[in-house]
């Protein structure tokens, strides 16, 4: 008996359709499983891992790493606060002690204490939701060659920066948009007799305020690649090591900074975020932090580049801010700064 060709064709199409549907479901399932194995970390724009380090993390943890950056640490904080209970990622890295309190206050981070957190690092946090990864200081950096060439004495204190002869030489960052900018604003509260008056004097005297560290350091500062017009800049205690000693820190202007990593509340992959935090505390990453992130590792046994001892020692007179006070008054201080800036 011969088969009806129309029925045969219909049957073939049905089988093909079922086959394609099966493939589609399998592909969808595979795609969903792939997403489950991806961990997304929100970071500041100075975060850097090598291909080899990413491969090692993925091999050891079983998770595929995806990073996203909205800008510097202040931008990360602002984005996480705006997201609130809708997690912008699984975990975070690079939020510092001067702004992390805003996250814990809003409850957007989960408690997690890694087993490999060095004992010495525990004193760098006051929250189980914030894991210290690296530390450093925000300081005024000076182009030593410029001061020598122009026969001008280096400023010695933050109060000196309010004097007209120094105010016009300084480029700083907007505290509302920049992590080091906010740190410097907090430093002026501890290192001058009247921080509002100090800022009024600096701005009236010619201090330039820009949006980001990269604009200030790489474009306006005379002591780096941009060869700008300002021989004083708000930067980091480690920056002079990068410049090979052509620049120096003004020790009395420094304020302590600690960068944290952690797990976000509502994360789709909290276990992946925990694995990332653990990885950042591994011996390999702690040894790599000075060269890649230009910060000091929190593990005291980690190796530092030789030139850091010469050109990037930590200031012994730096300010250590109160995180709880900053969390409480951060928004108020920024509004006060904006009001001062608008008048000048």
TrEMBL record:
Signal peptide: 1-26
Name assigned to this protein: Thiamine ABC transporter substrate-binding protein
A Pfam short name: SBP_bac_6
SUPFAM superfamilies: Periplasmic binding protein-like II
InterPro entries linked to this entry: ThiB-like
Coiled-coil ranges from the UniProt annotation: none
Gene3D superfamilies: Periplasmic binding protein-like II
Species for this entry: Pseudoglutamicibacter cumminsii
């Amino acid at each position: 008996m011969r088969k009806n060709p129309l029925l045969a064709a219909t049957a073939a199409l049905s089988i093909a359709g079922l086959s394609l549907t099966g493939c589609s479901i399998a592909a969808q399932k595979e795609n969903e499983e792939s997403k489950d194995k991806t961990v997304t970390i929100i970071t500041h724009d100075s975060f850097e891992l090598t291909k080899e380090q990413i491969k090692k993390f993925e091999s050891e943890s079983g998770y595929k790493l995806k990073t996203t950056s909205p800008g510097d640490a202040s931008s990360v904080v602002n984005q996480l606060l705006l997201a609130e209970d809708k997690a912008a990622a699984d975990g975070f890295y690079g939020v510092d002690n001067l702004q992390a309190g805003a996250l814990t206050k809003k409850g957007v981070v989960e408690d997690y204490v890694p087993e490999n957190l060095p004992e010495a690092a525990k004193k760098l946090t006051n929250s189980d939701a914030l894991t210290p990864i690296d530390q450093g200081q925000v300081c005024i950096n000076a182009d030593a060659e410029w001061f020598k060439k122009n026969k001008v004495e280096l400023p010695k204190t933050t109060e000196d920066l309010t004097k007209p002869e120094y105010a016009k030489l300084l480029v700083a960052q907007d505290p509302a948009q920049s992590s080091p900018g906010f740190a410097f604003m907090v430093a002026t509260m501890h290192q001058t007799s009247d921080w509002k008056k100090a800022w009024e004097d600096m701005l009236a005297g010619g201090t330039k305020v820009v949006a980001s560290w990269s604009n200030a350091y790489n474009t306006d500062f005379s002591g780096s690649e941009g060869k700008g017009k300002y021989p004083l800049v708000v930067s980091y205690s480690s920056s002079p090591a990068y410049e090979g000693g052509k620049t120096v820190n003004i020790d009395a202007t420094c304020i302590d900074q600690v960068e944290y990593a952690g797990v976000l509340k509502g994360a789709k992959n909290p276990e992946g975020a925990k694995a990332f935090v653990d990885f950042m505390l591994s011996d390999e990453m702690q040894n790599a932090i000075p060269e890649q992130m230009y910060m000091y590792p929190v593990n005291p046994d980690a190796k530092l580049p030789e030139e850091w001892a010469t050109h990037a020692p930590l200031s012994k007179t730096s300010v250590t801010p109160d995180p709880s006070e900053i969390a409480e008054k951060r928004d108020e201080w920024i509004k006060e700064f904006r009001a001062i800036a608008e008048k000048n």
